[in-house]
From TrEMBL:
Residues 241-293 form the HAMP domain. The chain crosses the membrane at residues 218-239. This is HAMP domain-containing protein. GO terms for cellular component: membrane. One of its GO terms (biological process) is signal transduction. Keywords: Membrane, Transmembrane, Transmembrane helix.
Length: 301
């Protein structure tokens, strides 16, 4: 079958096979690299958000809490606005109202929280335990599966670094009365200084991470495809005008010579391989012409 194909078809077939191999191999590599880059970009943005939430926590602890601390003993209901974690969570919910952050979720997953809204689930508990076992581990990220879909998460440990944090979390006796009235005496106590009690987690649907990677992958493969098509067109034009057309002309000229028309030479201006071939057939024509003249002068007996 290949013997019957013309040069152009053979060239295009070779180019197509080469292109498919390159796209397959590079597509796999590209997919891995782009997904890694997409994860890094989401991680970078998540870490910036966590740093922002830390600033909210510090503001609440240093400025809001001192202003409302006395009311914690006087009010019947606890004022959650005095809790840094509560402020961070509320601020993030306002941030999620912006289109760029709608898909982001923030939680301060805690092993023994005062507010059960912050209770760590089984997966989050494993993350917190990893931080507790490895104090040098500052960031953890990856994918987790939920019934609602897969999530990509970024987590950082929550460590008790200030004595002031223990007012509400050391013992029920030391806690404000309003806290006990609102949340009871069972949860959120027994914390210790320098203890890792939870993890700040920011998560985003995994589909968003993978979608960003796929968009870039499709874009790059699209550019490669356009480049391949341009190369195929350019090579086919070159093959047609620099190789195929001169060979066809030479074939027509050779047929004329074979029928006895020895009055013309085949002309090819370029000094490339086709030019060398043209010189050779011209010499062959001259040799044939000399042989014909010799036969005319000395016909066989």
């Amino acid at each position: 079958m290949l013997k019957n194909l013309k040069l152009g078809m053979k060239l295009n077939l070779i180019l197509l096979i080469t292109f498919l191999v390159i796209v397959t191999v590079n597509g796999f590599i590209l997919s891995t690299v782009l997904q890694s880059n997409a994860e890094q970009e989401v991680t970078r943005k998540a870490l910036v958000l966590i740093e922002t939430m830390d600033s909210v926590r510090d503001y609440t602890r240093l400025q809001v809490n001192p202003e409302l601390a006395d009311r914690l003993e006087q009010e019947d209901q606890f004022l959650p606005q005095t809790v840094p974690g509560y402020s961070a969570r509320e601020v993030f919910e306002y941030l999620r109202q912006r289109d760029a952050y709608t898909d982001f979720f923030y939680k301060e997953a805690t092993l023994n929280p005062t507010n059960l809204r912050d209770k760590a689930d089984k997966f989050e508990t494993a993350i917190v335990e990893d931080f507790r076992k490895n104090p040098d581990l500052k960031t953890k990220s990856g994918f987790r599966s939920l019934q609602s879909g897969n999530l990509y998460y970024v987590a950082r440990p929550i460590e008790i670094k200030k004595e002031s944090c223990l007012r509400c979390h050391s013992t029920p006796e030391a806690a404000p009365k309003s806290q006990l009235a609102t949340y009871g005496r069972e949860n959120g106590f027994g914390w210790q200084l320098n203890e890792i009690v939870g993890a700040q987690t920011i998560s985003v649907p995994a589909g968003r991470v993978l979608a960003d990677a796929r968009k870039l992958q499709v874009l790059v493969i699209g550019i490669l495809t356009i480049g391949f098509l341009i190369a195929v067109i350019a090579l086919n034009l070159f093959l047609k005008f620099a190789v195929v057309s001169p060979i066809k002309e030479m074939a027509v000229w050779s047929r004329e010579v074979s029928t006895g028309n020895l009055n013309t030479d085949y002309e090819h201006q370029a000094n490339d391989e086709i030019g060398v071939l043209a010189s050779s057939v011209n010499r062959l024509k001259v040799s044939m012409e000399m042989a014909m003249n010799m036969l005319k002068k000395n016909p066989p007996a």
